[in-house]
Structures are given as C-alpha cells and as structure tokens.
Amino acid sequence: MKLKAYRTLRRNIILYVGLCLLFLTSGCGLDVYYVLPSPYDTNHEPNYNSNYGESYFEFFTNESGFENDGGLKFQGTEVYYKIYSSYSTMTSQVSTLQSLASSDDTSTTASTRLITTYTYKPLAVKDSTESPLIPYKGTNQRVYIRLTDYLDMEEFSAKILADDEYLYDSESKTVPVRNISEKKTFNFGRTGDNDAVPKSDDEDVNYTTVSETNKWYVAMFAVAVGVDYLYTSYPSNILYLGSVTIDSSSENN
Hints:
Blueprint: H1 2-27, E1 41-44, E2 57-60, E3 72-84, H2 87-102, H3 109-117, E4 121-122, E5 124-125, E6 134-135, E7 142-146, E8 159-162, E9 165-166, E10 176-177, E11 205-206, E12 215-228, E13 233-247
Parallel strand pairs: 3-11
Antiparallel strand pairs: 1-2, 2-7, 3-4, 3-6, 3-12, 5-10, 7-8, 8-9, 12-13
Helix pairs in contact: 2-3
C-alpha cells in the first residue's frame, strides 16, 4: 500500500509541475513570435548584364496597414549589399537566398543566412548615421537607389530617393556609400578622396577569384526591421533587389 501511495503521489506531483510549467510558458508569452511584412515588390530589378541606363534598383516598402501600437515597433526598411569578385559566386549565393526566402514566411532563416553567413552589410549614406536606411512612415514608399555616377549627368548620378525625395528631409543629395570604416563610394574607377577599388580583405567584399576584367559585382536585398518592447530585433523575410556590375577600369558606370 505504501508503494502504491508513493507512486500515486509522485505521478500527481509530476502532473502538477507539468501543468504549472505549461501555464507559465503560456502566460509569459514565450510562444509569441512577431512577423514583419517584408518589402513586397521590385519595380525595377537590374542584373549584372544591364547597361548604365538600367543600373538602378527600385522597390516598394511594405508599411501600409501596420500599426505601431502592439508588441512590435516597425522601425523601417534596411538595404543590404555585398561586393563580389566573381559573378558565379554571387549568382550561387543569391540563388540560395532566394530559395530560402520563397519558403520562409515567418522564420528568420533567410535573413540570418544573408547577414550572418554571407555577411551582407547595411547600405550607408554619405555624412549620415541614420538607421535603418528607410525610416518607417506608415505608408508604402517607392525607393530608388543608384550606386554609381555616369559622366556628370544628374539622371545617372549616385543617389537614394524615397518617393522622389532625398532621405531624412535632407536638402542635399543622399548618396550611397559602402559600410566600411572609410565610407568609400561605389565609384571604383574614379580617383576622388572617397573613391577606391575594393580590397580582398574588406568587410563588405567576397573575394574568391582575381578579376581579370576589373569588374566587380554588387547584389542587394531589402529587409524590414522592427523591435519588441524588450528591444529584441525582428527582421522580415528578404527581398532580392537585383545586381549590378561596376568596372574599376572605367570612371563611368
């Protein structure tokens, strides 16, 4: 009898502890997972064979209908880039990322591979420390990015626009630069103070082969970003924006 009573008591204790744990994990919100809407459309997606007239990126943020009154605060949209010495390496990694994105609606698998594994860097802006690149406004924004300058033509100059306006209410042109300590431009073939050919050990470079044609390849992705009340960061799924070729033997790209 004593053994039977002990077993019954032990079983009841285990059941009670299990129910308590279930209650605590449910009540503490451990099962809550926030999902941000990812940027949803590329209005213009260049590829590495595009000519200078087509070498720009254009996409829409996905903000309409999202209310910043819950547990997650939508901060804005970040653009990540990577410079490659080999277009075959670039296309292979881009293909992997696109495949992950197509089957990854709620988890961070694609964004983790993008940022942690392939070490893509957030695109920076000359003379600015704002982050994310495109701040949240509550309405979808059309974003235009051109990385390089072609001749002295304003239409084909390096700049970033959101709804045809410079970023952060700036009156001067918002120019994209590399997110490395020197904040160099993407004008690899020019000789200005902030122009330079990428180096094999630069943080934003994937260097696998020596480029005999002096060409570099830049791929970009967009990611919405937000934080919860504990300031835990939540990225959205990723959107491929396209790729461009930059010829370091030419001033104009």
